[in-house]
Amino acid sequence: MVALLVLLLVIAGVVWLLVARPWASSATSEADDPQGQDAAPVLPVVSTSPEPDGSASPGATTSGTPAATTGASSGPNAGASGGPNAGASSGPNAGASSGPDAGASGGPTQAKTPGPAASAAACSPNEVTVTAVTDKTSYASGQDPKLSIELVNDGSQPCTLNVGTSAQVFTITSGDDTWWRSTDCQSEPSDMVVVLDAGQKVSSAQPITWDRTRSTVATCQAKNRPKAGGGGASYHLSVSIGGIDSIDDAIFQLY
After folding, report:
1. Comparing 109 with 39, which gets the higher pLDDT?
2. Residue 18, helix vs strand vs coil
């Protein structure tokens, strides 16, 4: 009788294990837990002086971002021009930030986070491809363009590059007219020299929003800066990072 009870208990335990599968929930929890997984490498976010309405622009993103050393602000880089109905054209520079005078940011595909600068040689324009990115190619009235930057080390060896906020420049032009530059009202720029592995891609962690206003160093606190024209007018976004210009402009239209 005792042997029969023991046999029944063993059978019941086996059936429970097959039905409940406790090991499955444990595996799911581990898969859902982001800790321990490699964080996607991102570029620091450029911040600017308070916007005309007095609100502050977002600060630097820290998730997956390599440690940076503080440095001086970099000067503006002019973007390529495109007329009110311009076609494609090449030009440098792309980035992202929020507010009328935002800077750049970056967030990449799943890859190893850029490491601190070591003994690798400095990146050259022949090794690194920089791309200006907008979230759309056409914006209806009331929609503001979101700008970001992508870069990839196309070389066969690791190289070092300053990807800090002091080394990022976003420029929007229309024809020969420069409408907006991220460095006009940039605040607290800093250096961040990192090592990019061969084939590594890095892009904006979050985009910068251009509010369609004209930027100058003298109008950072102005509440009524001139608004860019719509009606299908064409604008070009160019970017640069670490002194390397974007290969082409990102072209978009405003309505």
Report:
1. 39
2. helix
The closest of 99, 246, 73, 72 to 173, measured between CA atoms, is: 246
| C-alpha span between 239 and 93 (Å, rounded) | 1
Instruction: Verify that 26 and 128 share a domain, yes or no.
Output: no
Distances (CA, A) of 255 to 80, 106, 113, 145: 21, 27, 39, 11
Give how many domains the chain has, as a whole number: 2
Please report, as a single letter, which amino acid is at residue 206: Q
DSSP 14: H
Domain span at residue 22 reads: 1-33
Locate tokens 């602000």: which residue?
A: 73
Measured in degrees and rounded to the nearest 5, phi and psi for residue 30 equal -65, -35
pLDDT number for residue 37: 41
**214 and 149: one domain?**
yes
Burial 134-155 (b: 16+ CB within 10 A, else e): bbeeebeeeeebbbbbbbbbeb
Strand-pairing partners, residue 54, are none
Strands 201-204 and 138-139: unpaired
pLDDT of residue 30: 42
CA 120, CA 73: separation in Å to the nearest integer?
A: 24
Is the confidence at residue 225, as pLDDT, over 90? yes
Closest Cα to residue 100, out of 183, 204, 191, 188?
183
β 42-43/201-204 pair status: parallel
Q: What is the pTM of this model?
A: 0.61
